[in-house]
Amino acid sequence: MKNLRKALAVAVAAAALSTAFTTPAQAARGSFVYHVDWWWAPLELPDPEDNHCYNMQGAADRPTNHTDRTAILYRGVDCHDSETVAFYQPGTVGVEHFGSVKFVNW
Q1: Which helix (H) or strand (E) holds 58?
Q2: For 23-49, how does the pLDDT look when each residue is reduced to its tens digit (9 = 90+)?
Q3: Which residues have C-beta within 8 Å of that of residue 63, sequence separation ≥ 6?
Q4: Helical H runs in 1-106?
Q5: What is the β-pairing status of strands 98-104 and 31-36?
Q6: The whole model's pTM is what?
Q7: Residues with Cβ < 8 Å from 33, sequence gap 6 or more?
Q8: Residues 6+ apart with CB under 8 A from 51
Q9: In a 10 Å sphere around its CB, with 0-12 CB exposed, 13-18 middle and 19+ buried, how is residue 83 labelled?
């Protein structure tokens, strides 16, 4: 019984320490607006998470960055660095075609 209590205490302490040093995911404030060929209205990503790759639902274009983060547009899906199309600072409007986007706080 003594060993069980000691093991439980160690497990609780380890869990407490692992959550004490994690930071919550940061997110951009605002929205990222874009268009796709198959839909008549613009689509929106509200308050996107930092460093998370968002794949578009088809061939996207006409991006508008209304967030407080830099948006990195990629030609294909999964945000491959070798396929970077453009960097959109907050407030940037453009015409580029892209397949995925990631938001960074530089």
Answers
A1: strand 53-65
A2: 446 878 999 999 998 899 999 999 999
A3: 32, 33, 34, 71, 73, 88, 92, 93, 94, 96, 98, 101
A4: 2-20
A5: unpaired
A6: 0.74
A7: 42, 43, 44, 45, 63, 64, 66
A8: 102, 103, 104
A9: middle
